[in-house]
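Hey all, quick one. A colleague (J.T.) asked me to put the BES job into the tracker so the inputs and the structure tokens live in one place instead of scattered across chat threads. No bug as far as I know, just bookkeeping. Sequence used:
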Amino acid sequence: MQDVLNYIDGRRGEFQADLLALLRMASVSADPAFSPEVRRAAEWIRSHLADLGLAAELVETAGHPIVYAESAPVAGAPVALVYGHYDVQPPDPLDQWTTPPFEPAIRDGKVFARGATDDKGQMLTHVKSVQSWLAAAGRLPLQVKFVIEGEEEVGSEHLGRFLRDNAPRLACDCVVISDTSQFAPGVPAITYGLRGIAYFELRLFGPKQDLHSGVFGGGVANPAVALSAMLAALVDRDGRITVPGFYDDVVPLTDAERAEFASLPFDEAAFKRQLGVAELAGEQGYTTIERRWARPTFDVNGLTSGYQGEGAKTVLPARASAKFSFRLVPNQDPHKIAAALRRRLEELVPPGIRMELVEHHGAPGIVMPLDSPYLQAAAAAVEQGFQRRPVFIREGGSIPIVNTFAEVLGADVLLLGWGQNDDNPHGPNEKFSLDDYHRGVRASAVLWQELAAIKNQPL
Ligand code: BES
Ligand code: ZN
């Protein structure tokens, strides 16, 4: 093991250069204009894994390709499957980046680029740990399989099918995912719960074309006013979602969990400063951590209507639209939520306005059991990589495919996040600490050893 860790310490510069090369590829999955770059990133990872001696291929889908690779089987040892994604969110708003999103720049020990933390940097730690084992020890202590997809940021539409169709080939004892965060600087974490999501677009249509708001205003329904009113009617003053039945299936927080969350070293004042807000807000009766990790929420993600240019324009817009989403918690069903939402919006839409509701991606939330031996092995590995015992947390983000992994492969899922809360994923100036990258590679290398020890013990 020490040889492997020494190898990792000696290759910091080389491992960073590889990360920078991957970050230069603009693999934005949401926008078809970037498709060639998405493929370039997939191919880069495939050939990288093949160069390490793994059997590696690109699996075509109706969307972006999946990279699949596996190392040699190891008799008597468990099998770990690494899941990650090489696609990234759109880099907008571009004018808010200090340096361009696809020209990675290192400042203050951090690499700034779209995808730095989410998820290229985090995912690559497992590739680098495999490289280090193979180079320094000549073999891995267990078999590692890689499923690196290109559609996570758009809902993993085609990955479920691949998992179902290839279940025997993908068989594994645990799924390792590094696509979350540490709890705080110096406080590594293992995440045992994620929220789900239900994402929608509401389009409202009024008059057949934009009108003079003085000549026609008052005589015809304004789609922008209707949209604001309909969206506002989805939450009440206490931050509760008003869609009938919305909370019916929500698993409430237990007293024990609430006590554990409350015992975490969370600094609310620092959190406000980080976000640049004077006050925090959310559902009444819950703490900030509870609201973010374990309660369902509603957020508008984009609003479009009327005149957005310089100065003023007295227009009554012909249409208005919004993209919005609910974060869900176990046991809420995104399909049930969609049906209830549609019924509610149909009640709310005023006369003279026609509505269209588009259902984008959806995924349920998940909470994993804490008593898995793999989880304990992961805790030991994180402790060695980060020099501190991890805390066990839930997070508010979503990784849509996690449920499918648990269901189809029946494997335990280990969410080992190397990121920081202020890494700005999805925002401008996304970054990843190069120390966290290095520690992540070390923790991953130890993880293979710790996991291998589980089944190697005589029964
Ligand atoms: N890496 C994130 C998810 C995440 C981030 C979980 C931080 C916990 C903490 C992932 O890439 C992501 O952003 N997922 C999307 C999924 C959606 C597009 C279906 C999300 O949560 O918005
Ligand atoms: Zn991600």
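Adding what we noticed when we looked at it: The chain is about 35% helix and 20% strand. The chain has a mean pLDDT of 97.
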